[in-house]
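Regression test case RT-17, inverse folding.

Input:
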């Protein structure tokens, strides 16, 4: 024990030596105290304490006694204050960086805010903000918040999720609890451009994140369910996705899904909730659903058909742009005439999550006979068909008339077009991934006579055609969005573009020169998009580098197939690109690849139909770039190409390297089958 805690006054001078050593209160009787007598021990007194004149003098001096008592009380008060300060410092969350201790938030003093945070029936408007924490150093002005709201609208809103009702943001933010405001500031400042930061000065984004987490995580861990807590978790997760903090992303999503399930269990007891609150809850729940599907490996706990999600009200649909025309060949669906495009995106994204799970199982060595009706492959294909029949016809590619709209008209309905683009890319990339050559045509590296099961050539024909077709659609949709001024800051779409790029890279080695040229052009398109978005999302920087290496391989290498198909390092590299959770990519394969490998055979591709002079000239030009040698040409001449009926032949506008989606959206099957695989 530190005796200085009680001040500098020594212990009682009439205590005996044994009592002093044991630090017990001594009665002080001499020559032997009663305490020592009870313990049968020798009682002695030190000589220096025996003089009693001074002690008697102090006792008989009331002024000295009073003065000494006041001093001791003052010292005790100072020590108590010091202990109180120490305890406050120790109980602050350890996640706060020590360098930020001077700006650490003080405990909440507004009891209304505390009550609101613990009240699940309170909407976001019922929250009172007692003022920003000293962690900020300054309050955001209304002018600054207006700028950040615009950043949210352009960079985060509907990319991929509509977390807030943007029409109410300017009136709502002053009532937010401090942790939600911190989360909003962190997310928007993360995506604000350099000119914004140059004009407003540096902002402590990391401090905002740490301050928000220090308040939100303990509340969420205790099971507190409220709209601001869920919103804050979503924004913090977005910041962690940006920073490639995969562990914290998983933890945030796990906590958020538990809160959503708890919200569903309490739904019956909270039927008095206002419509505004129920819509806010729906936004939060569907955002957590998207996060779980896109950024965790599973198993997932949120499913669209569970009571938790089914009982949620629909999120308000973005305003539809004017209708240009409706295809005469596409009658309205018989069921589910709902035109809410965001709801359609959520249903389709559920299928996308299942495809990611399917490919993960295939990569881990769990093959199936995919051509059987009972296979997971067939089940997912049927889910795609069911989705197509339920989709409101107004959202189909042939009915929206994107190429007939001006950039100004598109910008006025950006919420709709952001959702529409996610709908389209998810549909086409889902098909491309489900039919990826790594899963089917190039899945088994063993010789044919050593494989346990013979794969039906007609099935392989279907998978190759579908992969090539739908991967091409993803590239063209990205190009169309750029031409129409649709800004894409959606990490989900970025991953889908990377998946499509792996398909294009494989077919850039096709023995058919036209297919190879088309695939190489689409690969370049994908790389340009990913390299651009990597400047805003560092998590894609490594994959952009990998795509650059693949471009170099495609241009400098004759082929990539060995005696047993794709080499293990190449397959591993492609799987790492497909895996949305892969963080470390091995680039050594790019320097060890055999430059004289075989090209990807086109025996499972339908013959290309060429009917225009422009296509012929393009084919002649690209043939010089990727033309096989004489021996290979002779082997190609003997290939027995599988013939499709004329209606299934590919149109030259699909594979021409010169035609752009912005110039012509006429992707038609020959024979009048409508859009070539378009949704």
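Golden output:
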């Amino acid at each position: 024990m530190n005796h200085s805690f009680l001040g500098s006054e020594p212990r009682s001078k009439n205590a005996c030596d044994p009592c002093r050593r044991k630090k017990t209160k001594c009665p002080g009787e001499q020559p032997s105290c009663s305490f020592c007598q009870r313990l049968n021990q020798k009682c002695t007194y030190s000589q220096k304490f025996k003089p009693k004149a001074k002690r008697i003098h102090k006792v008989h001096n009331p002024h000295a006694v009073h003065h000494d008592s006041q001093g001791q009380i003052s010292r005790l008060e100072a020590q108590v204050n010091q202990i109180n300060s120490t305890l406050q410092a120790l109980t602050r969350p350890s996640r706060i960086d020590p360098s930020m201790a001077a700006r650490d938030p003080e405990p909440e003093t507004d009891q209304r805010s505390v009550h609101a945070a613990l009240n699940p029936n309170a909407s976001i408007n019922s929250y009172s903000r007692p003022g920003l924490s000293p962690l900020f150093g300054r309050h955001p002005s209304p002018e600054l918040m207006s700028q950040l709201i615009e950043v949210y609208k352009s960079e985060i809103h509907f990319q991929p999720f509509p977390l807030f009702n943007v029409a109410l943001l300017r009136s709502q933010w002053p009532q937010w609890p401090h942790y939600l405001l911190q989360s909003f500031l962190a997310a928007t400042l993360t995506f604000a451009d350099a000119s914004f930061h140059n004009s407003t000065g540096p902002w402590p984004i990391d401090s905002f994140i740490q301050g928000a987490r220090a308040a939100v995580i303990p509340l969420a861990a205790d099971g507190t369910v409220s709209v601001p807590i869920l919103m804050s978790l979503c924004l913090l997760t977005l910041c962690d996705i940006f920073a490639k903090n995969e562990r914290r992303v998983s933890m945030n999503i796990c906590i958020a899904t538990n809160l959503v399930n708890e919200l569903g269990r309490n739904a019956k007891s909270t039927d008095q909730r206002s419509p505004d609150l129920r819509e806010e809850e729906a936004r939060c729940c569907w955002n957590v659903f998207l996060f779980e599907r896109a950024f965790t490996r599973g198993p997932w706990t949120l499913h669209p058909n569970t009571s938790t999600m089914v009982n949620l009200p629909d999120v308000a649909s973005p305003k539809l742009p004017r209708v240009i025309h409706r295809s005469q060949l596409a009658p309205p669906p018989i069921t589910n005439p709902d035109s809410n495009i965001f709801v359609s995106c959520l249903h389709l994204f559920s299928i996308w999550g299942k495809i990611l799970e399917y490919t993960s199982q295939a990569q881990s060595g769990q093959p199936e006979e995919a051509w059987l009706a009972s296979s997971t492959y067939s089940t997912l294909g049927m889910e795609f068909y069911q989705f197509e029949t339920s989709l409101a016809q107004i959202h189909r590619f042939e009915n929206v008339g994107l190429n007939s709209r001006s950039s100004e008209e598109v910008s006025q309905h950006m919420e709709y077009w952001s959702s529409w683009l996610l709908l389209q890319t998810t549909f086409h990339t889902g098909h491309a991934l489900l039919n990826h050559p790594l899963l089917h045509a190039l899945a088994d590296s063993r010789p044919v006579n050593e494989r346990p099961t013979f794969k039906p050539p007609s099935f392989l024909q279907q998978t190759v055609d579908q992969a090539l077709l739908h991967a091409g659609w993803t590239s063209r949709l990205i190009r169309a969005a750029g031409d129409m001024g649709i800004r894409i800051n959606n990490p989900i779409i970025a991953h889908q573009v990377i998946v499509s790029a792996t398909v294009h890279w494989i077919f850039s080695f096709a023995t058919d020169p036209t297919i190879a040229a088309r695939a190489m052009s689409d690969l370049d398109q994908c790389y340009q998009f990913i390299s651009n978005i990597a400047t805003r999302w560092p998590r894609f920087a490594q994959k952009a580098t990998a795509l650059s290496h693949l471009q170099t391989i495609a241009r400098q290498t004759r082929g990539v197939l060995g005696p047993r198909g794709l080499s293990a390092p190449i397959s591993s590299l492609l799987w790492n690109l497909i895996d949305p959770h892969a963080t470390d990519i091995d680039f050594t394969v790019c320097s060890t690849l055999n430059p004289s490998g075989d090209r990807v055979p086109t025996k499972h591709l339908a013959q290309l139909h060429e009917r225009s002079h422009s296509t012929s000239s393009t084919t002649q030009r690209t043939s010089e770039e990727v033309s096989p040698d004489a021996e290979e040409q002779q082997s190609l001449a003997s290939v027995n190409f599988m013939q499709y009926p004329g209606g299934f032949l590919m149109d030259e506008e699909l594979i021409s390297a010169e035609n752009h989606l912005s110039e012509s959206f006429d992707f038609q099957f020959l024979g009048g089958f409508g859009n070539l695989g378009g949704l």
